[in-house]
User: Fold this.
Amino acid sequence: GSGAGSAAQPIATAKPIDAPKAAPAAAMPPPPTGTHILTYFSHRASSRCDVTELLFGIAKTPFQVNRLVWADFVRLREASREGPGATGDPASTEGVSLPNSQLPVLAIPGSDGKVTCVGQNKAIVRYAAKLAGMYPADDILVAAKADSAMDRLDDLAITRWYLAKDAAAKADVLADIVDVRLPPILGDLALMLQ
Assistant:
């Protein structure tokens, strides 16, 4: 029966987890040589690649920017493919590797002459930040905080600035950014840095 003396035995016993052992420091490969090619949309509302361009400048990494209009992107997407036969050269529309069929895409030159294409803006920014020596490579907690800060900055949503048609509209957007959106973001960033 289920008397007072017959307690159910636990199915599994929790054991303390040992402190994580530090991984041996992996040697970072040398930075790629050659020109990186960053491809994104041509309209100025496509500000997502501005940070990447800035970081490449800081890192003194050779790069070029290809900005596409929608029709060119559609042709590129239709012609793109991933796999062993892809050239990864977003400058052409033949044999292009377009991860997820989306932009932006960064073509990274390899020392072996092969090109690797990376999609997703945040992945590209983190890559560029590592090249610029501005991303923590040896402390995952600091890296997580850096990611959190970067993601919080997304909340500025400054796309409206690029879409503003005249000086008065830009002034209204700037006032909103400075007076409404920026103060809580700066407060959050200050807390993250403590």
Notes: Helices lie at 50-59, 70-79, 121-131, 140-153, 159-163, 167-193. The mean pLDDT is 75. Residues 156 and 177 are 7 Å apart (CA to CA). The first helix runs from residue 50 to 59.
